[in-house]
Amino acid sequence: MDVDADMKNTKVNALFAQVPGTILPDKTYYDEGNQAGPKLLPIYAKMMTKLLQKTGYEKDEAQKIVDDTLQFDRLIVPWIKSAEESADYSKMYNPRKFNDFVNTSRYLDLAAITYSVIDVNPNLVILPEPAFFDHFNEVVNPDNFDLMKNWMKAKLVQRYSGYLSDEMRVLATTYSRALSGQKEPRNQAKSAYYLATGTFDQVVGLYYGHEYFGDGLLVTALPKTG
């Protein structure tokens, strides 16, 4: 979930409910006959097995988590848009009444989850990909709970490996480098720079504005950026 400007009235903010990302970069990579998907998934699986072992899991446990992750990932695929479909911006605006949204799931308290991250009572939720929420109970249910739990573990380890050690940072970029065709990982200094600026981008931007634009230009620019 995230809060962003309402597409039809940018003077107000709206609550958006997004779909989870898939392992492969586009839905079409999962199609039968696609040659890239079957080559990329083993790279991801090998990388994640190693990362999980480095966080303390035995090899068999790590492989089980990865297998479950791949299986849960497949459950998401039928209900998400391809990159081509997502490019149609006009079809991203699908407001749904909040009361209807929280009743989407028979198994999760979506109202409680929402109120844990925002402190207002929204009237609407915007769903860029409503098909996923129409089939939410087919993906998130007691039968798939263990799969989802291991999928979340894998996501967490992959996301935060860059904070744990430089060895894990490099290992965790194996899959993304395979996607981009980048042979070598970033060096440690450059990686640290991007990590810091990514975390403190607003602070860095404000400093840059004061330091290099001056207060006069900053006053002129601020109204234009909202």
Structure summary, number of beta strands:
4
Give the DSSP E fraction (strand runs of 2 or more residues).
5-15%
> What is the second-level CATH architecture of the largest domain?
Orthogonal Bundle
Helix percent reads 55-70%
**Rg, nearest Å:** 21 Å
Protein name: Endopeptidase PepO
Organism: Ligilactobacillus acidipiscis
Domain Peptidase M13 N-terminal: 2-214
InterPro entries: Peptidase_M13_dom_2 (IPR042089), Peptidase_M13_N (IPR008753)
Walk me through the structure.
With 226 residues, the chain is an alpha+beta fold. It folds into two domains: 2-185, Neutral endopeptidase, domain 2 (Orthogonal Bundle); 186-226, no CATH class. Helices cover 56% and strands 8% of the residues. The protein has helices at 37-54, 59-76, 83-86, 98-102, 110-115, 130-134, 136-139, 145-160, 166-172, 174-180, 188-199, 201-225, and strands at 2-6, 9-16, 95-97, 124-126. A four-stranded mixed β-sheet has the order 1-2-4-3. The longest helix has 25 residues, at 201-225. The protein is globular, with a radius of gyration of 21 Å. The protein starts with a strand and ends with a helix.
Describe the secondary-structure layout.
Layout: E1 2-6, E2 9-16, H1 37-54, H2 59-76, H3 83-86, E3 95-97, H4 98-102, H5 110-115, E4 124-126, H6 130-134, H7 136-139, H8 145-160, H9 166-172, H10 174-180, H11 188-199, H12 201-225
Parallel strand pairs: 2-4
Antiparallel strand pairs: 1-2, 3-4
List keywords for this structure.
226 residues, alpha+beta
Can you describe this structure in just a few lines?
The protein is of the alpha+beta class and 226 residues long. It has 12 helices and 4 strands. The protein is globular.
